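> call design_seq(struct)
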């Protein structure tokens, strides 16, 4: 008997339980029906029109994205709008769209832990409020560096480890750093948690001008790696995890990572 969307949702619930999502978030099935058959799955960061169109052309049955297609309740589904056009396109091709957002950020071994591992942090703790029954689940992470270093040197090390073309740094270049905080996506909402954390540097994306000024005044540092770079690394990791889990069930389902997504910002 072929697998259906509900089977994959159950697996995703094990990977990133929906109860770990932030209250303002909208995770889970965005478009489609749970009883639709699924043979091809694609993982992407964003449900962009070009990503959805390509998935439809290539007969993908389920598109799993990190960012939800629908954040706020829709007052109407107008096919001439970007969201409406995506819903229309996906529905016509019987392709379901599913989102795992802050629940995938918050869970143990989720996106925040993956970023921390890539950077090389140890002894991880949650930066924001703890969610769920385990004290290692929640937004952001705090961790120890393998060795004490200077802010400028650490920033270049982060840039190299994440294979980035550029980063933005605020704070004194010779600031001594031995503990770092991080948050995937936009980190401004946890800036006060960073100040209280005991970490010397905060790594995230979408920092604001006044965040940088406040960090300077506190004689601390921030490293802005960009929203896209802080989250896109989940695409290949999640695809690999799903393939491993599905292969153990004996069900024949193809799982692949979307390879066409690029950072919307270009430095000129």
């Amino acid at each position: 008997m072929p697998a259906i969307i509900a089977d994959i949702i159950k697996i995703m619930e094990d990977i990133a339980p929906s109860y770990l999502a932030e209250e303002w978030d909208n995770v889970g099935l965005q478009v489609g029906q749970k009883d639709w058959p699924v043979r091809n799955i694609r993982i992407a960061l964003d449900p962009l029109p070009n990503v959805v169109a390509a998935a439809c052309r290539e007969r993908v049955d389920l598109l799993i994205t990190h960012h939800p297609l629908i954040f706020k309740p829709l007052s109407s589904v107008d096919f001439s709008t970007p969201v409406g056009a995506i819903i229309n396109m996906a529905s016509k091709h019987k392709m379901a769209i599913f989102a795992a957002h802050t629940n995938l950020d918050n869970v143990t071994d989720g996106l925040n832990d993956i970023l921390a591992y890539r950077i090389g942090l140890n002894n991880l703790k949650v930066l924001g409020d703890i969610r769920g029954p385990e004290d290692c689940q929640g937004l952001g992470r705090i961790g120890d560096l393998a060795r004490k270093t200077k802010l400028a040197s650490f920033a270049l090390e982060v840039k190299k480890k994440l294979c980035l073309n550029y980063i933005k740094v605020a704070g004194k270049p010779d600031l001594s750093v031995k503990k770092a905080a991080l948050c995937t996506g936009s980190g401004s909402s946890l800036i006060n948690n960073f100040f209280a954390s005991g970490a010397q540097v905060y790594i995230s994306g979408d920092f604001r001008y006044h965040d940088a000024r406040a960090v300077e005044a506190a004689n601390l540092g921030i490293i802005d790696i960009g929203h896209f770079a802080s989250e896109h690394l989940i695409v290949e990791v999640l695809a690999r995890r799903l393939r491993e889990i599905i292969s153990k069930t004996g069900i024949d389902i193809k799982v692949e990572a979307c390879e066409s997504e690029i950072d919307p910002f270009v430095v000129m």
